[in-house]
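Subgroup meeting minutes
Present: P.N., E.W., G.H.
Scribe: E.W.

1. P.N. recapped why we're keeping a running log of single-chain structure predictions: easier to compare across weeks, and new members can see raw inputs and outputs side by side.
2. G.H. added today's entry (129 aa).
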Amino acid sequence: MKVRAGFVSNSSSSSYIIVLPDNFNPDTDFNWKNVEKELYLDELGKDEDGNTKEQALKVIKSELKTFLKSKSAYSEEVSMRTLINGLDKYVINTIEGGPGYDTMTILDNKKLRKILESSLKTNIQPEAK
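Output recorded in log:
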């Protein structure tokens, strides 16, 4: 298994680890401009599901709400690449695996703080006098 610190996308499965601020606001903190830029519309202004841009963004917003509520998602449940493009600055690691489903997980901030605090206490050495 390969571990990478940046955004990757390929045919193997990828797991994205995401850390969101406690006050994350989907309307202002999600990168909607990045998502709109990556949204593919055909010559009739429709996406692959036949949605207009406005309809597609509404679907994405609904999927984002579902993801934020559950804290985890599989590629079969949401438009993974689209959500990752909107959450790009919050992805702290990507783990590539073999065949399977892509996943996204939001780390619990309280648990993360405890781990970091414990790690800092363990790794801090007193200064030599």
